Amino acid sequence: MKALHNLQRAFAADLWGDDLHHLQGLVLDDHLPAARRFNVYRNNFQSSLTDALAAIYPVTEQLVGRDFFRYMADQYTRAHPSRSGDIHEFGRAMPRFLSRLQTVSSLPYLADVSRLEWDYHTVFHAADPPRFEPSSLQQFAAEDWPKLRLCMGPACRLIHSMYPIFRIWKVNQESFVGDKNVSLDMGPDSVLVVRPKLDVELWRLNPAESTFLECLVSRNVLGEAVEKCLAHSSDFDLQSVLQRCLSAGALMVVES
Prior knowledge:
256 residues; mainly alpha; Outer Surface Protein A, domain 3; two-stranded antiparallel sheet
């Protein structure tokens, strides 16, 4: 077992190197020299990981440019090598990686934009939420409603940023037509990433809606959440928000 472990470590070391060192003599020559054969594998491996990151983070790539994104991807994959057979899990640490990367410090919003894109990716691949039936709420008496607890559905994420990440994401979509100017003064933003049916949607929330959902995520009962969000807006429409979020699978009633 130790021999296999040592072989795996040697393979990994050469995979991120520039030549064949640790595996010299273990990779057989054929029609091509061993070093060239291994280099073909190395290039395909690194390219596949870069392509996977570009598929998850298309807006991030557009903001920094393709060439610089490939440089970032190389740095990221060296710092955070894939540890799962599921390629969908690769890229989870990118927002944290970008928040610490000095070469993008002039783009302070970049980490939050990438976090939005990771949430989009996660929601796209998440399990379907239970189908909401409006009649299911009839089991609760009126006096029990303030005591209800709700939680986020599996295909839903809530993200906050001091930057206008919704606008940045929107103007960098291929289908966007119109003024692409973005001012950082447009922030902050709270965005709900949700998948009502087959397609992922981004909902930009107002302060009352954001506070309401954040309270529910923090396990406040419904009555407490409503009281806190009314501090932001006296005309908060609870029925409309609940109907929209429950129907989309963004919220689910926690069974007592």
